[in-house]
Amino acid sequence: MRTLFKNFGYVMLLITATALGADLNEWSHSGYFAMTPLGEWLYKMDPSMLNTAQAVVQRYIAPWAWEYGIQYVLQTGTMIVAGIPAALCIGGAAMTKKKPLRGVAGLRGETYA
Prior knowledge:
The protein is 73% helix and 0% strand. The chain is mainly α.
């Protein structure tokens, strides 16, 4: 489980670095820095995906979930949306202790260090 969270964190860190690189590239061309919202990235990948997601969330979950939750996340910068889970997953995985396998060292009379 620890490895799963750490790997997820590294994927999110890669997304954060990619978004930072794209925003810095835009900054070098335009002269001002602005974080690209997550919704803009998703729209560039597949324009119909956001419409479908909105319809599904509003119809099957709750209309307020889209308006006050998901829409807010889509308008937030990609570096923030991906960077916070990356920091939490990598930091959390680093803070947990790695547990030894049960019974492996105990069979030969060895102790855990």
